[in-house]
Amino acid sequence: MSPGMARGEAVLDPRLAGARQMLSRVRAVVPVMSAKGGVGKTLVAVIAALHAARRGRRTGLLDLDVTSPSAHIALGVDPGSLQPEEKNGVVPPLVAGVRFMTVAYYTWDRPTPLRGQAVDDAIREVLAVTNWGELDLLIVDTPPGLRDEALDTLEYLPDPRVVAVATPSRLARAGVERLLALLEEQGQPRYLLVNMYAGGDGLEDLAEKYGARYLGRVRLDPSVEEALGDPEKLLSTGMARDVAEAVDRLLEDLGI
Amino acid sequence: MSPGMARGEAVLDPRLAGARQMLSRVRAVVPVMSAKGGVGKTLVAVIAALHAARRGRRTGLLDLDVTSPSAHIALGVDPGSLQPEEKNGVVPPLVAGVRFMTVAYYTWDRPTPLRGQAVDDAIREVLAVTNWGELDLLIVDTPPGLRDEALDTLEYLPDPRVVAVATPSRLARAGVERLLALLEEQGQPRYLLVNMYAGGDGLEDLAEKYGARYLGRVRLDPSVEEALGDPEKLLSTGMARDVAEAVDRLLEDLGI
């Protein structure tokens, strides 16, 4: 099976119909994407989910970065000891108020080198088996970069509203632009959140150019490293205050 | 052609024999790798090449991050106006004393979403056509992550001596460990350079555990962003001073 066929096949794979069914009672699916790794995508996804749950929204968090899952580390979950219950599919355990699903439950925390088709396969499998129940919001941490596995995710999720996370580095700018352009081409609702850790301008011009709603800037905050693994501490960092404001804007915009 | 066949095919592809020929007069090939994006891999590769050239080594720099090439931005090269000469293959132009080759010469600076096999193909093609001539050192900026395209690169390059670049974030630690373990399994000579931008410990324990020579720590230096595009300025940053020390250690170790 050639990786070039993936898009064509999508409609034929019964797992994708299953995935739609599993997500049918989720009001808003929000993939967090980035054109490049190391921009804080995972931290934004984790903090956003924790904050939304504190705000009383029924919230899920799905780590689809299947070759290097790390959301569980930020949440302090030992994937070897916490295992999801099986009940009409796999029911994600509740972690700090968030329904949390990750392939790390099955790969025992080892980063997994996978060929392209195997990555796509793992993503479809996780989507097909996870029973989310009723949720207001599902945050999805996607694989970084402009590779198929990130872009295909958008086809597998119903009505995705993408939050693009970016840094203003000139080395990364062309990538951010390409991601926003792709989202615009596909007509996906899109938001931009900018991580300021390396300084630079806030990329407001790119949001404007590609019709993305600007969610704000996130400050550099070295205290986050220490707070990893402790949801309470994570929520008290400066980074979390900035992400929380962005999430409040997002919830308002989504009407949930 | 299935991506799962890539390793098996490698011996049969005449382009790879061509690549070996093109690299036969290069004394040391040094791929710069990272388990995840955003750790400063490209900056390290660019500064290392600039510094080695200043030290009088005949130096080349090859940007193999074919989906998101960015070394040309750090060097201040406009890939539309600078085009390599063709003479027994493609002769990389001299930029600030460094023979510099990138796919951006051909993609006009647009990040390119490619499927797995196409990425591998572009990498083989660049390796097969580039006539490096006689060099002391060729630094290779590789695609980030533990995907095939990064790992396969090691099979295409003769006697690679890998510099792994990492940050000490706990979110990234498992990935760094996996990369070093893979290099150890394959018996590749390996070095570790740690980018300290987010704080944390220096990962010396991982270098020890996987038999990697420790090249040092690189400090956080926001002035780098301003220096992008200006090799002279880049070399005067604090980051460059740390990278320069690491490169001097590397050159000594390689005996060049």
From TrEMBL, chains A, B:
What's the domain of life for this entry? Archaea
* InterPro entries reported for this sequence: NUBPL-like, P-loop_NTPase, YlxH/NBP35
* UniProt KW keywords: ATP-binding, Nucleotide-binding
A Pfam family annotated for this chain is ParA
Gene Ontology molecular-function annotations: 4 iron, 4 sulfur cluster binding; ATP binding
- Keyword ATP-binding: yes or no? yes
- Does the record bear ATP-binding in its keywords? yes
List membrane-spanning regions.
none
Name the Gene Ontology biological process terms. iron-sulfur cluster assembly
What protein name is recorded for this chain? ATP-binding protein
Q: What organism does the UniProt record list as the source?
A: Pyrodictium occultum
